[in-house]
Design goal:
Layout: H1 41-52, H2 67-76, H3 81-106, H4 112-136
């Protein structure tokens, strides 16, 4: 019995499974990403100062915490890329903490504001110290929560 169905074609027996690329093709090589050079000793010190100067807020009842990082960043950002990066990071975090502190002050009459002020204060102190230590080691530090106002 002969099959005259035009839509049914005989199986192609000449096709072969995909073959690997020719042997003379070089294997793919992963190129390591370019890493920034190790910051100089001065850059590390000024990077640490960007973070630690935020503790000036202790002298100004929490409202001057952004002044120190701003001054250090503005003075040294052109000279050291590490200080430019860490200064922006410190300034953003200090402004974020100031906003949290202001929210706590405004809502202090609701009792929750007092808890907000205490939580922001503890987190501010702990993360500022951690960031200062990391910057002194030349490690780029990113705060776990921070509004990126300055980019």
């Amino acid at each position: 019995m002969e099959n005259n169905d035009p839509e049914k074609k005989p199986a192609d027996t000449t096709s072969t499974p995909e073959s690997p690329p020719p042997a003379d093709t070089p294997p793919a090589v992963e190129v390591p990403s370019a890493t920034a050079p190790e910051p100089s000793k001065e850059a590390k010190q000024f990077g640490m100062l960007c973070h630690i100067s935020g503790l000036a807020g202790l002298l100004t009842a929490g409202f001057g915490n952004w002044i120190g990082p701003l001054v250090v960043w503005l003075l040294k950002k052109e000279e050291y890329p590490f200080v430019d990066d860490q200064g922006k990071e410190a300034l953003n975090f200090q402004i974020t903490c100031l906003i949290g502190y202001l929210i706590g002050v405004i809502t202090a009459w609701l009792i929750i504001g007092i808890l907000i002020i205490m939580a922001v204060g503890v987190l501010w102190l702990v993360f500022t110290i951690i960031a200062a230590v990391k910057a002194s080691e030349g490690i780029t530090y990113r705060y776990p929560f921070s509004i990126r106002l300055i980019k």
